[in-house]
Design goal:
About 40% of the residues lie in helices and about 20% in strands.
Length: about 725
């Protein structure tokens, strides 16, 4: 035997002994219904071999090795690439080995957040890292490295923070390869028994209450169920579906960001309805069926009137990850509807959802009800892993309570300082979570280590009231700009600059210095008090001082957001031609000049968009919400209404002339009304825009208006023309 073989054998025996010491703790964890985290540190080879010993020594029922590349001696069925972590949502595992130590591996925050919630009581999560974790970026930082940055040149504040938190947590099993594991003192006795619910199909009293509320769902009284991960909300939806089918409900529609999110719903259906049959995304019994429809398809079916209507029933799971606009459409289309969402976790921000969507619920269905599930099902209430994962990934970050009636000051925050100040970091990230419906765990890493990113905050009495994140873009040399504009190159990042180059053909948008507002957020209880304007005023001044040419932003086209940016002096420069998969809305880009060069660039971009908008609305953007179309048309300068236009419009308003024969005059009337200050969301104006610019006519217009047919829709159109014509007359203001 060679010296190397002897050394390998000795290491194997040491790793095996250490693995057995750790496995001796598993029965105690299972007895308490706890889960454990093992922080395994060492070289890549040593960590993988040591973790392999743990893998082989235990009696695991559903283990997974999470790494970018398949590990040696592990069956392919038990290997999971981090990018596929979402596919395991709804599953259960008892061992998860996360490779953040190999050369090609790194720590993927989104994957860890998704998988941690699948670990059941008595399970182990093994995190393999280098010994000096946080001293340099890992391989996953390649996703942050925007042109011209290289991954190894980035900071690694995020990883250093993770290492610091793990070192300080008493519940972590620390295993330095070559040394004996340091074990926490886990209890040797079971925790208090939890009361069993009266409903035999449910596992907790919380879940039983949710099923009962769902079964009694009433028309125009939506139910909103909120819960942390692992509380059985999706299973509760499945149990309720069983009860509805048994009661004779012919069809229950279900939607969620992805089919995997409702897998446990279908599992409960299959368990409680053994004679039913599942085919793809539908489950059928003799009484009826439960059918999953993706959000974009459901929205289109609802707009066409093919789903929804009297008596129809819809369940929306993981609602926080679905744009509020779509939720509002379904709220109008389905008389019986329930929303369920994760409050803290991978699938979006339940807190932000609750704050924003509650306004819509209060306005349209004031008798809605809420229910929160607190008791976990997969693990005990005092499980140590859940709060640890929440701290590491800031899944439970929330803003601080703002002081009342206090003005604040805007100042730039060095990210080195922010990374070392955990309370302030949590408060700022909590603001971002509340403001954006789709905040993910990886956004915290972007906040701390994204290249060219800057953080400014508006604070009062040391409490953040608002925060804005900006990123540097553009500055390409002329050669690269030409290649990008022709579609030959796509450097990483630079969303605003590259979009303007690709869609407007602007080389100067790439060579100029641009700064993009990545996120802006204000404390929910201090909104509409001018704090957003104060943040943007400070950012505009900083952009001018730093020599930027344009300050811009990109967001989902929605009238209230467009109005905010317009009040800050920003102009629209681009609108996407298809709905964004992540938002369900059309992406809108706005900009404001911060230099003389920027003035010229902005003028050409805005004028190009203004000229293109009517044609786009008639073809590619016919699906754009008419309220948004009206808001965008308000930026135009074509406000002239000739005597001929007035005569044609009057023929429509008081005569029997076909409106289609006077379309140019009615388009001019709409523009004139907008230029005269009419609110873009005025229903008569919106109707004229939908018909005149987007071609919404006939039966489609009747469905949009909620009237029986074409004749009634045309009558409404004539009425709208008459009202706008009366307001636009020279004597209307007298």
């Amino acid at each position: 035997m060679t010296e190397r073989q002897e050394e390998g054998g000795r290491e194997g025996r040491e790793w095996g002994a250490a693995a057995r010491v750790i496995l001796d703790q598993v029965p105690g964890l299972a007895l308490r219904r706890w889960r454990g985290l093992i922080w395994l540190q060492g070289t890549p080879r040593a960590c993988c071999e040591a973790a392999g010993e743990l893998w082989r020594a235990g009696r695991w029922h559903s283990p997974f090795w999470v790494a970018p590349e398949a590990p040696r001696r592990i069956e392919a069925a038990h290997w999971l690439a981090p990018a596929r972590a979402r596919t395991r949502l709804g599953g259960e595992h008892d061992l998860l080995i996360i490779d953040a130590v190999s050369e090609a591996a790194g720590f993927d925050p989104d994957a860890v957040a998704a998988l941690a919630g699948t670990l059941r009581a008595g399970g182990l999560l093994v995190l393999m890292t280098p010994r000096a974790w946080g001293s340099r970026p890992d391989a996953d930082y390649a996703r942050l490295a925007e042109h011209p940055w290289r991954p190894e040149a980035l900071t690694s504040r995020y990883l250093a923070r993770l290492a610091r938190l793990l070192e300080a947590d008493d519940a972590v099993i620390r295993w330095h390869v070559g040394k004996s594991p340091l074990l926490p003192r886990f209890p040797t006795h079971p925790g208090p028994a939890e009361a069993m619910p009266a409903d035999p199909d449910c596992l907790t009293e919380d879940q039983a209450r949710a099923v009962g509320r769902l079964a009694r769902l009433r028309r125009r009284r939506p139910l909103v169920i909120t819960a942390d991960r692992g509380r059985g909300k999706s299973a509760a939806l499945g149990i309720a579906c069983v009860r509805w089918l048994a009661a004779g409900e012919p069809e229950v529609l279900v939607t969620a960001p992805r089919p995997a999110a409702v897998e446990s719903l279908f599992e409960r259906l299959a368990t409680l309805c053994p004679h039913g049959e599942r085919r793809g995304n539908a489950f059928s019994t003799e009484q009826g069926q439960v059918r999953f429809v993706a959000p974009d398809a459901l929205a289109e079916l609802a707009r066409q009137g093919e789903v929804g209507g009297a008596g129809r029933l819809l369940l929306v799971d993981e609602a926080a990850a679905i744009p509020a606009g779509l939720l509002g459409e379904w709220l109008d289309a389905f008389p019986r509807i329930a929303f369920a969402t994760t409050v803290h976790g991978y699938e979006g921000s339940g807190r932000g959802f609750a704050l924003r969507f509650r306004e819509r619920l209060d306005r349209t269905t004031p008798e809605w009800r809420g229910l929160h599930l607190a008791t976990p099902i997969r693990w005990a209430s005092d499980d140590p892993l859940e709060p640890l994962i929440h701290r590491l990934l800031m899944l439970d970050a929330e803003p601080l309570e703002p002081p009342a009636e206090t003005a604040g000051d805007v100042h730039w925050l060095p990210r080195e300082t922010l990374a070392a100040d955990e309370p302030r970091l949590r408060a700022l990230f909590g603001l971002l979570v509340q403001a954006h419906y789709r905040t993910t765990p990886s956004d915290l890493r972007l906040l701390l280590d994204g290249p060219g990113l800057a953080v400014s905050a508006l604070t009062a009495e040391d409490v953040p009231l608002g925060v804005v994140l900006t990123a540097e873009e553009g500055g390409f040399d002329a050669g690269l700009a030409e290649q990008v504009a022709r579609g030959e190159r796509r450097p990483r990042g630079h969303l605003l600059a590259q979009s303007l180059a690709a869609h407007a053909g602007s080389r100067e948008a790439l060579t100029a210095r641009l700064r993009r507002v990545v996120r802006i957020a204000v404390a929910p209880r201090r909104r509409r008090e001018g704090y957003g304007q104060a943040l943007m005023t400070a950012e505009l001044e900083r952009a001018r001082r730093d020599g930027c040419d344009l300050l811009g932003a990109s967001f989902g086209a929605e009238p209230a957001l467009i109005a905010f940016w317009r009040r800050q002096g920003f102009r629209v420069v681009r609108l996407g031609l298809t709905r964004e998969t992540s938002t369900g809305e059309y992406a809108l880009m706005v900009a404001r000049a911060t230099s003389q060069r920027g003035e010229s660039l902005l003028g050409s971009l805005a004028e190009r968009f203004r000229r293109a908008l009517p044609g786009l609305l008639a073809f590619e953007l016919r699906g754009l919400a008419p309220e948004v179309a009206s808001t965008l048309l308000a930026e135009g300068r074509d406000a002239e209404l000739t005597d001929s236009d007035r005569r044609d419009a009057k023929d429509i308003a008081v005569g029997h002339r076909d409106p289609a024969l006077a379309r140019p005059a009615l388009q001019a009337l709409a523009r004139h009304a907008l230029a005269g200050g009419m609110a873009p969301d005025d229903p008569h104006l919106v109707l004229l825009v939908a018909w005149g610019f987007q071609g919404l006519a006939g039966e489609a217009l009747a469905r949009h208006l909620g009237v029986p047919g074409r004749r009634q829709a045309t009558a409404r159109l004539r009425e709208a023309v008459a009202i706008l014509l009366s307001l636009s007359s020279p004597t209307a203001a007298c």
